[in-house]
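Retry 2 of 3 after timeout on previous attempt. Resubmitting structure tokens to design endpoint.
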């Protein structure tokens, strides 16, 4: 099985290099929002001294860390597979003796991340020179602890992306559903604004939802802003949501494939 994953990684890695312009456009799209949020909140914090107890440096370190974590935990499954379900070309992948989402689509996601990260790092370093963040609170143990948090965050994000993509078996409006899902991520994952600044009710709801595990939890972990009990609770919550996402994905996938039909399928 490892040889299959290695070969698919090679295929998807070289395939991503063929679409460099497309990749650059995706990267610019990803960069715009966090940089705008960073500039706005930093300006407000500098003018008022702090916002909700967060200083300008807190916002700078938060959004610069968000740029990296967002790249590592986001997924592009719907753009890789939904059109294949709609136009029937998925039938060719169903004939292969491997799962089309858990092998080829997964490797395509990882190859895309690796390539965008190569381009993102110089941009990120340029932003560090511009905003001069103080990352003195970041420690090696915190970075090591963030690795499983990021892996779980990507796993949950990938599975939820796959579940939404599988809705294409039933409707052609799957992109609208994905936009709604993205809006929830922006609101509850701390992408628009750190959850500390959200109303108390939103903060309490976000504690139990999977979205904050995708970005907010790894960011706060890296920046050393979480007490030990919150770290343990979020890891346990991430494990539960990951298992639930696996079960829901398998259920939706099997139901969807049973009703799938196309020329030659």
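Retry 2 succeeded. Sequence:
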């Amino acid at each position: 099985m490892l040889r299959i994953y290695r070969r698919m990684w090679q295929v998807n890695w070289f395939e991503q290099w063929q679409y460099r312009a497309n990749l650059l456009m995706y990267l610019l799209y990803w960069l715009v929002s966090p940089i705008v949020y960073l500039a706005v909140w930093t300006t407000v914090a500098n003018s008022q001294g702090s916002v909700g107890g967060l200083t300008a440096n807190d916002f700078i370190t938060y959004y610069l860390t968000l740029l990296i974590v967002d790249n590592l935990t986001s997924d592009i499954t719907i753009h890789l597979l939904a059109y294949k379900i709609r136009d029937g070309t998925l039938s060719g992948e169903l004939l292969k003796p491997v799962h089309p989402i858990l092998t080829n689509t997964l490797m395509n996601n990882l190859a895309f991340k690796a390539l965008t990260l190569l381009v993102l790092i110089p941009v990120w370093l340029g932003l560090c020179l511009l905003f001069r963040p103080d990352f003195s609170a970041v420690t090696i143990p915190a970075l090591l602890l963030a690795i499983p948090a990021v892996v779980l965050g990507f796993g949950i994000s990938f599975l939820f992306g796959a579940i939404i993509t599988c809705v294409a078996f039933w409707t052609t409006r799957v992109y609208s559903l994905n936009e709604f899902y993205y809006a929830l991520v922006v609101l509850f994952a701390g992408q628009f604004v750190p959850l500390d600044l959200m109303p108390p009710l939103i903060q309490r709801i976000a504690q139990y939802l999977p979205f904050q595990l995708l970005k907010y939890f790894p960011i706060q972990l890296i920046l050393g802003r979480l007490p030990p009990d919150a770290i343990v609770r979020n890891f346990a919550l991430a494990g539960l949501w990951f298992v639930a996402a696996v079960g829901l994905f398998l259920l939706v996938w099997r139901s969807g494939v049973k009703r799938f039909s196309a020329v030659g399928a």
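Attempt log closed. The chain has twelve helices and no strands.
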